[in-house]
Fold these 3 entries.
Entry 1:
Amino acid sequence: MTGTLEELGYTASLREHYNSVAAEGQCPGRVVEAFQELYTVSTGGRALRCTLSGRLRSRLADRAAYPTTGDWVILAPADATSGVIHDLMPRRGVLLRRAAGERSAAQAIASHIDVAVIVQSADRDFSVNRIDRYISIARAADIRPIAVINKADLVSPEAIGELCAAISSRHPGLHVVTSSVVETGGLEGLRAELLPGETCCFLGSSGVGKSTLINALMGHECAATGAVSEATQRGRHTTTSRTLFALPGGALVIDTPGMRELGLADSGAGVEDSFAEIRDLARACRFSDCSHQEEPGCAVRAAIDEGSLAPAALDSYLRLRREARRFEQSAAELRRTERKHGKMIKQILREKRDRW
Ligand code: GDP
Ligand code: ZN
């Protein structure tokens, strides 16, 4: 993917950072494709195949710190087609993937994301709870969520109205648009949400129409691989992680396979922020650690009894919070085991040394 740095999403604060740290012979660039430790980096004008400098690799604390699609990096071009990445610029809008309780560390699957386009299909499997989950993931990463009800052509306008209302009553203020790839003008609402220079990602269950939407927004078939192929001169079959590309309107899309299996991030903060109404009500609960289940003086349950809060919202909130807590616990357990393991090794080494 080529185009100027600004067209790639370069901002004033990134420029400022770059100017304060970059050395002679270096330039800024954005990772448009990441595969293991090989990166395609667009420098605004050309795409270079890059590796990591040894010094950078030794500084990277864990898997999650490795560059990923969307990252802004500082590199030194070696020749017309390759270069070496020397540093990462400060990150924001990072989507992490990690499996709770497994030894595998978290992995960053996309970075510098501004907007999460949460797609649901109007005809089946519609679930506000699932939207809650994706909103929590987005909020935890400081990414602005919007909701899209796709396949609007398959249901009546009344049914669409009800779905929109169901989302809006759970999440007041959330932008909700409908879309259809088969109706003329069916993408206008969505297009209006995708601003030039902003990076978005599409989240949602398989089959809701994410790929079809992206292709339609691009205006041609196989759009998702087109831009990358152009940059790296490689065909679709070898593109293992097709990734960052620009829509005709100037918005950028990151679409990596890893996004399909996103789980809740490791912090409960995203969940709290996604249910602002419950968070605000909870301030009036008698107990500051109220679980809103059996406790006396619970303002959240009182709101349900009064009819001002939907019971389904509390159910969804409690489920996501449980999930986030379980995740935190297993992450903490993992750290404890690792610490114990580390101590044991030190102990063995000490005993060995003492013996000799
Ligand atoms: P993904 O798994 O979310 O990427 O979903 P796909 O893009 O593969 O789409 C799943 C199916 O839904 C495909 O058969 C699409 O043709 C169909 N589809 C996608 N968008 C629409 C739409 O707006 N209207 C209708 N009727 N079908 C759609
Ligand atoms: Zn309570």
Entry 2:
Amino acid sequence: MAEHNQVWNDCLSYLSRRVNRQSFYTWLKPTVMLGVDDSTMQIGVPNRFVADWLQEHYSDLITEALRSVTERDCSFAFIVSPHCEAAQTDMFVVRQHFAATAAAKTAEPWNGNGCKMCNELSDRYHFENFVVGDSNEFAYAASIAVGKSPGKTRYNPLFIYGGVGLGKTHLAQAIGNYVIDNDKAARVLYATSEKFTTDFINSISNKSIADFSNRYRSADMLLIDDIQFFTGKESTQEQFFHTFNTLHQNGRQIVLTADRPPRDIKGLEERLLSRFSSGLVTDIQPPSLETRIAILQRKAESDNVKVSADVLSYIAGSVSTNIRDLEGCLTRLLAYASLRGKEVTVDIAQHLLRDSIPSVKETVSIEQIQRRVAESYNISPEMMQAKRKTAEVALARQIAMYLCRTLTSSSLKGIGAAFGGRDHSTVIHAHKTILEMIRKDVNLKLRIDQITNSLYV
Ligand code: ADP
Ligand code: MG
């Protein structure tokens, strides 16, 4: 067995040189060697989705890696296994798979919004202009999978959750736009949960409930955004439950978004919660500094303006969580620059953003982060640089590195140096580890949020 483990470890290190870092961490790193059965290597993966993804995208490369390591051809299979990193499994809660029935489209006329029918879909949101980083790669990949075969994957419903301004609406609408681009006749209906609620209430007062039901229940794809607002609205929930079931039974794709995972949405009926969790649940995390810079770059390019890398880094370093605010800052700056006929410099950016946008706070320093985290964990700040460490200190240190990476614009090298001369890979590892931990540990997330908040008061 040790020998098989070694083979797989060697393969992973081979693969890590052949695929980019982000994809490696997302898809390959969470795998483990389970053993060999009937001369087939059993490779453990955290969930079905990863298995499908590896099969589709990496099987040739894995074959090549195994050949290079073992000097012969080996067959392999992906097995969903609880031995894989728990953090990863939680990212994709695949509780129950519904075999999607290949449903024939109903003959009744469509009286939804249509392609005109989907006039709620904005043309701004596409996969092409969605920047992928390690904070959103899973959600993105799942969205593409659903967009390619709506209703035909096991990811039904697809449930995307994450904080404000992190791209949930963008992804949901990109799925809808993608489906329509591929099939002009597809009946895609996008609505916020508030719109669904008002439509329902209006249909009661207009005595047109049948029209309402018909409209929502004859969609090929239904996208409902921000379903946390269904909380406490019992009869709307009831309606939605029936709509959901009808669509689901007919093999139609449903995509839901919310600001938190299904289990944390209070005031939703149990049967709805279990429906929502029955396909694929995936999250979007706040983007890392690199992703934030990439998003700004993409935006500047699409607006056809040149902004220096310094300015982009400054903005990305100042606004760390909300992508909407991030874009807002750039827009403001560009507006200012064009009005004054000036080129944007870091000085102007500093001046303008600090004065006019309250949500943009001063950037915090590595030292402040270390001090706050140490305080929270009741250890002395010097422990952040110490060689010797207990598990508690190790965790505190990783949290501090994670925060430095998300809240400051310091380089990986700079951060490593401030933690007793660690190298950049230690910082990357810490960031990744904490990102995974907060996905499954709400309390830890809360604690880190508190530390973050306290840095800005
Ligand atoms: P949410 O629905 O999660 O609150 P949105 O989808 O409305 O967030 O995103 C806020 C803004 O940020 C939108 O303008 C969106 O296009 C942009 N945005 C979010 N994530 C990305 C991304 N990964 N790449 C490019 N733009 C993004
Ligand atoms: Mg939204």
Entry 3:
Amino acid sequence: MTVTIVGSQLGDEGKGGVVDLYGDAADVVARYQGGDNAGHTVVHDGEKYKLSLVPSGAVRGKVGVLGNGCVVNPETLFEEIDTLHDKGLDPDVRVAERAHVILPYHRVLDGIEEDEKADLAAGTTKRGIGPTYEDKAGRRGIRVGDLLDPDVLRERLEYVVPQKRALAEEVFGADVGEAFDVEHLFETYREYGERLAEENMTVDCGTYLQDRIDAGDNVMLEGAQGTSIDIDHGIYPYVTSSNPTAGGATVGTGLGPTVVGQGEVIGIVKAYLSRVGTGPLPTELGGVEGQTPGYDPETGADTDEEELATYIRDEGGEYGTVTGRPRRVGWLDMPMLRHAARANGFTGLAINHIDVLAGLEEVKVGHSYELDGETVYTMPPTTEKWGDCEATFKSFDGWSEVDWAEVAAEGYEAIPENARTYLEYVADELEASIYAVGVGPGREETVVVENPYE
Ligand code: IMP
């Protein structure tokens, strides 16, 4: 059977921990979209592994698959695999021949275009994700399978690279280097192709996964990012360029919708909101200069809200891992979650980080929005309308700090009662059961209510 893991908010919900936990019972963990814009840390046998592309299951002896819906940067892929080898592991990673390849010019263009877009910039990770998906849709992309055939690779590069070079030089006035040089790219990527072939890493993803399922294996389908930054169902244009939603699990692997639908679809929810980048956020607390639209720390700050925001930000470690920039934070947004529950058809929920909210006297959620004189319970389709929404809050009594490791060991009933009331409100509203509750950053700090593979 399959278990699909989907972020239900804006990414960074703590999917990695759940994938890691439930992945124990899986034989194969397959990613179905995105590329090295994701990021997770896996701790195994006391050793920390930071991965952005290779599925975390590969650290634990599972087969890790990058599905056809992914965009693969071979440089990152082999760097991560080599690091795992250096640490004494022998990861089994397979890559779909239909997956698209991120080339150096994609990264360069991602940076240039973000700078040009100013207010419309999505604040991308600059890994070339968007430009690679653009080329996929424009039918000028290079696929993993093309790296295996030098004639095809050369033909594709000779067609596409002059266009990219002209775009960079003539439209954006940029200086271009070897990232736009056909010969250099051909040699480098042909070698990647040779390595993929030598190590027998490429697969016809749908066939491979279906064969494993037919043989009785458990397959986990791992979404990256989250529903509200899905290119179709998210807050366009502040989105990533793929489909983190559950539909992406079928087109991004080649498994039929009925196969994925017969399995479980677990929505990962963070108990509050955090966001990197600009655009509206109706349940935001306080603001962050340069990210919250119209925010002026001199005049715009409500001291109580700012204090709350700082508390949650500090407790949750909501600072950029690379830049150290504070992330925007806010209360849970139920219309956002109702939208996610419908778009993904969640069968279960994993709610993370309830420990971060411990110690607050009152915990609020945005229960609904007021929009143009009406009460609405789900997200409007345009980001501008979402920006017009005023959240109507519901209040819950807070819960105190407890020994969360003990709670995790004892089980659901050991969670403080007020926190359980909060969790059950969310589950009732989304009409999905609670499968797991995250009470701390470690994998063992999770209360497991249900194991989807059992
Ligand atoms: P891209 O995926 O690099 O094109 O970035 C597009 C948008 O998605 C930006 O707002 C990024 O901050 C966001 N994004 C991409 N990956 C992640 C993630 O793993 N977590 C949270 N946000 C992400």
